[in-house]
Write a structure and sequence with these properties.
mainly alpha
Amino acid sequence: MDHPVHNKRMDISLTLDDDVHQFASIYANAKGMTLDRAINELIRRAETTPQPAPDIRRSASGLPMFPPTGKVLTSLMVKEIESELE
């Protein structure tokens, strides 16, 4: 059954990473459906799954900050990038 909004069928070729293909194949086998139907279902589920809110933190002065990554951005790094842009 086609999705009500997406009633046009399109045949395409995809190159999937090995782990993605394996997951989709296992999912399809477990659900008793074809691989293309499983991929359609998984994509539609991803469309409707709520995404977590971005991790926006504020400094003591109220300015937004990048989430911590463990990497340090130094003034020297900024100067190097600026010199490359000139």
